[in-house]
Amino acid sequence: MAIIGWIVSTAAFLAGLALRQDLPFLLDDRISNGLLFAAFLTFPPFWAGKPLGITAGQRIMACLAMLLTLPVLFLPS
């Protein structure tokens, strides 16, 4: 589970930074904030001691759920 956390954390952090550098489309600031939050949520060293009583598996699954629902932002309203 930790390796999934590292992979998702790194990918989300780099994607969030890339969107911060070049804001090309509508709602990109919200998406970049969400990606940076996902990177923080899944970064294993921040959460090593379970400060909020949340296990690593729960955090990583919540982050994956956030990333998988990201396309909902692109639906026309």
Note poorly predicted spans: none
Class by helix and strand content?
Answer: mainly alpha
Strand content: under 5%
Shape: elongated
Structure description:
With 77 residues, the protein is an all-alpha fold. Helix content is 62%, strand content 0%. The chain contains 3 helices and no strands. It has helices spanning 2-21, 28-42, 56-68. Helix 1 (2-21) packs across helix 3 and helix 2 (28-42) packs antiparallel against helix 3. The longest helix is centred in the first third of the chain and has 20 residues, at 2-21. The radius of gyration is 13 Å and the shape is elongated.
Write the layout of secondary structure elements.
Elements: H1 2-21, H2 28-42, H3 56-68
Helix pairs in contact: 1-2, 1-3, 2-3
Give a brief description.
This protein is mostly helical.
Please tag this protein with its features.
77 residues, mainly alpha, 3 helices, 0% strand, elongated
